[in-house]
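Re: the request from the purification team.
They wanted to know what the chain is likely to look like in 3D before they choose a buffer screen. I agreed to run a prediction and write the result into the notebook, where they can find it.
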Amino acid sequence: MPADFPKSRTQKLKHLKVYDQLYELIQSGTFPPGSQLPSEADLAEQTQVSRMTLRKALSLLRDDGFLRNVPGVGHFVLAPDMGETDAKPGPPLHPVYAYCTEVPDTTELSFRMEPPTKAITGSFGLYTPAVVIADRWYKRGSVPVAYSLSILPIEQIGAQKIDLNTPDELLEFLEKTCYQLMGSLKRTCSHSTAGNFSSTTYTLSDRDSFLLVLENIYDKNRRIVMQSKHYIPFDRFKIEILFEKESASGR
């Protein structure tokens, strides 16, 4: 290294060296998927760097999809991303399954039927005598990791022959069938602080910071079939976007 190489630049590179060390430990299986890393104090001592330098390395490892941070608990190693799930032809995935890094294993459903408010009627752009409002809390084990709220005109329930006495039929439509039958959909992603009080039954995060996915699903005649809000805690979401160039044979 040249003698006049800026010392500040050398200091900035330290966290990259720590990144490489931890990456190799993860890849070698020293820290296997699902395992928790040692505390920051222990890691800083092992790598012989300051806590600030270590945190920079951990931040990069999180950004690159190797670690997940659980506030107040620690860092956990993520399983390798095998990729291509969303790249395969077919209907889109429900936002919680597409964007939440904690894959839920159970879903708690609650729904009710109500007369529509003026706001609901205005957003749907059509008259309906009643709407079905469905809440879902997505859990990993017993821990809630995301929340969805969906509103459907009662006519959609009848058209799809959904038996509300059998809640699993409604859940199947909300999670899968609506995407298979849709003509198009629009998703708008933004930051929200409303996740915890919207969820009501459960606290999703100890921080009021969420990815909010607003979703409109349309039929082939561009009529709204369903409107949804999906809340994912800021430390549990990841969005991947794939663009493919159309081949000459596909024109």
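For the purification team: The longest helix spans residues 7-27.
Please add any questions underneath this entry.
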